[in-house]
Design goal:
The protein has 257 residues and is mainly beta. Helix content is 3%, strand content 39%. The strands form 4 sheets. The chain has a 5-stranded mixed β-sheet, with no helix packed on it. A 5-stranded mixed β-sheet has the order 8-14-13-10-11. The radius of gyration is 28 Å and the shape is rod-shaped.
């Protein structure tokens, strides 16, 4: 069987996810995954630091495309796409002709997937395989405590200091594995437009003088400086309200004879 002259030299394969994934991983983001179970996340298996890697969030489709303008007759080739999952490789599609050089997969589960592409011409001469790795991060979820009440802060009210403080702690799965960013926004009775107040995971609300509802919204995202996510970037928000209750005025004592 003969190879087409120069086929290997002419084969320049760039796989793109949503047309943007051609050089997604610069450096080593060190995303942990279980190397034996693609849909679990407990132990480290970091992303290799080469360019044929992309990171997306759950809910985004996987879109792969072969681009090689140097190929003499791409429409005549059969494009064989393979997918490796949990150590098992299987062909997922094989088609020829214009527009058949793409592969799309909707709603992939979180995990690590390796895609391979091989091209075969009419004489059954096959190219070398090209590889592309996609890491799908799980969709974000966040849990906050229930709405709360607290006493308004008053001058000299030190005995009930604990009643003028409330903690809002966020619960997010896999915080020991993934890195996130947090943004807290506060709306008050005198600032209904709201303002950003913290980038910490948890906040403490205390010493509020104005009575009424204080609304706190936290937005959580994967740390983009670490993961360089492509496609729609995962984020989730949750809101809770703390009602500040008026405190009775300071009493006075007089003789009552």
């Amino acid at each position: 069987m003969k190879n087409i002259p120069g086929l290997r030299a002419l084969l320049l394969l760039m796989l793109c996810i949503c047309g943007l994934y051609s050089s997604a991983a610069e450096g080593d983001p060190s995303i942990p995954f279980d190397s034996t179970k693609v849909n679990s996340y407990p132990v480290a298996d970091s992303i290799p630091s080469y360019q044929n890697t992309a990171i997306i969030c759950e809910g985004n489709p996987i879109k792969l495309k072969y681009n090689n303008t140097a190929d003499p007759n791409p429409a005549s080739l059969t494009y064989e796409w393979y997918k490796e999952e949990q150590g098992t490789t299987a062909i997922v599609t094989a088609a020829s002709g214009t527009g058949k050089n793409t592969y799309q997969e909707a709603n992939p589960k979180p995990g690590k997937y390796i895609y391979k592409l091989r091209m075969v011409n009419a004489n059954n001469c096959a190219s070398e395989e090209a590889f592309f790795t996609v890491y799908v991060l799980p969709a974000l979820t966040i849990t906050l405590p229930s709405n709360q009440e607290m006493c308004a802060a008053t001058t000299g009210n030190t005995t009930d200091a604990k009643e003028m403080t409330r903690d809002i702690k966020s619960i997010i799965p896999y915080t020991s594995i993934f890195k996130y960013t947090y943004s807290w926004n506060e709306k008050t009775p005198t600032n209904t437009a709201g303002s950003d107040i913290s980038t910490a995971k948890d906040i403490t609300v205390k010493d509020k003088v104005d009575t009424g509802d204080y609304t706190y919204t936290v937005t959580v995202k994967y740390d983009q400086s670490v993961y360089k996510l492509l496609g729609d970037i995962c984020s989730t928000s949750e809101t809770r309200t703390i009602k500040v209750i008026p405190v009775p005025g300071k009493p006075s004592i007089t003789p009552n004879y």
